[in-house]
Every structure is written in C-alpha cells, then in structure tokens.
Amino acid sequence: MNTNKGTIYTSEDILKNIARKIETLEFKPGSKISENEIAQTYQVSRTVVRSAFAILREWGLIEVYPQRGTYITKINVAYIRDMQFVRNAVETAVMKEVMKKKDKSQLLTVLQKNLKEQEKFKHLKKYEDEFFRLDESFHRAFMDFIHRENIPEIINLNIQNIQFRRWRYLEVETLVLMEKIIEQHTCIYEAVKKGNERQAVEVLQEHLLTASQTSFNIWEKYPDFFVHTA
After folding, report:
1. What pLDDT digit, counting tens, does each position of 80-120 carry?
2. CATH class assigned to 11-73
C-alpha cells in the first residue's frame, strides 16, 4: 500500500482509502485486515484507524471475529441476485414509460454523447472509474428523462453502493465484458431511436441479465470471494 510521506491522514481519509481498495478488489473479499498494519502504513494512532473501521463495519465492508481478527466481508450472492432482480424490474418499467414519450430527441442526444465517450474504453480490460460513471449515467439518463431522478438512490444504483460496485469490477475484469457492455448500450440506443418499445425492452433486459447469466463462472473461479447465505 502506497502512502505519501509527510501527509497527515484523518480517520475520514483512511476510511475513503480502505473503502476504495475494497471496492476495486485490491483488498480481496475474505482477506484479513489489521488495525496495527493500517496504523503503521498511514502513520496514525490505532484510535484513528478504529474510527474508520467502525464505519466500515456499519457499511458491511468488514467483519470482526473474536479471537480471529478483522476480515473484508465476502460478496453476498443473495444480495447481488436481489439487486439484479430489482434493477431489472425498475429499469424495464422506466423504459416502458420512456417509450410512451413522442419526443425523445433530448434523451437521444444525451445517450449519443455518452456512447461516444464509452467508445474510448472499448478495448480496455480493466473496469476504469470513468467507464463506471458513464455506464451508470447511461442508465440514469432514462430515469432523468421521465423525471424519476430519485430512483437511482432508491435502488442503490448510485456511486455509493460499494457492495454492488465490487461485484461489477469482478464481473468485468473476469469476463472482459467491456466491449459487450458498450455493444448492448448501443443496441438500446438504436431501439429507442427507432421507437420500437418491444425491442428496447428486450435488449435492455438482455443487458441487465448478462451478469446473471455469467454469475456461475465467476463464483466457480473465485469461490472464496462469495458467501451464499441470504
């Protein structure tokens, strides 16, 4: 872990840094994390680290086992499945509302600009932060268009959702789906542009179900990263 010498770290700094490392899988699910090691790395007291750890526990990112230590929480399969189910239901309903609008020119302009930016990441194998923002912005655009701006927060589609984001990092980096994601986004755009509601819903659902269809491969490759309890 690299830190800048001479920098004075606060509990909030450490919280953000550790959360980020958990999110991007630098700190692997199920791996051990030590208060002492973190304190030494950032040159702070254990009290400062303990404050950060308390919030990480509240967020469900670490677990403390008496006599054993503190560990990075594994990815909950039931949570991911439920999240996928909710997103599918909500975004399908949103798409149907979008397709009822006669003038979708404003939405199409936003989507076209977004897709143009996505193309820059087409051949990358790493799930870059900027691409994640573009990915989520693409989906958010439909909700904004029908004035349902609060939906992302309600279904935890926002950037704060570390649990789901680390699944996304693992999914894309494991299966190299970047190009496929962009291709599916483009198909959604084209269906909306043509005004074909049935096709728009079908390609959207195919896109959202990609993770579900490939989940088994990920669980099989990284069994120690997951917990299969409800």
Report:
1. 888 888 889 999 999 999 999 999 999 999 999 999 999 98
2. mainly alpha
Contacts of 162 (CB under 8 A, 6+ apart): 19, 22, 23, 59, 61
Mean pLDDT of the region 41-60: 95
11-73 shares its CATH topology with 76-227:
no
CATH 3.40.50.2000 applies to domain 76-227: no
Q: Tokens 């560990």 label which residue?
A: 71
| CA 42 – CA 17 distance, rounded (Å) | 10
* Chain centre distance of CA 15: 18
Backbone angles phi, psi at 223, to 5 degrees: -60, -30
Confirm if 29 and 225 have CB atoms less than 8 A apart: yes
- Give the pTM: 0.80
Scanning the structure block, which residue is given the tokens 């570390």? 162
CB 182 within 8 A of CB 121: yes
- Determine the Cα–Cα distance for residues 37 and 14; give it in Å rounded to an integer: 12
**Helix (H) or strand (E) segment spanning residue 188:** helix 178-194
Q: Give exposure, 59-83, as e/b (b: 16+ Cβ within 10 Å).
A: eebbeeeeeeebbbbbbbbebbeeb
How far apart are the C-alpha atoms of 79 and 84, rounded to whole Å?
9
Domain spans, the chain? 11-73, 76-227
Torsion from C-alpha of 75, 81, 85, 90, nearest 10 degrees: 0
Cα-Cα end-to-end distance for the chain: 33
Query: Which residue do the tokens 């649990």 mark?
Result: 163
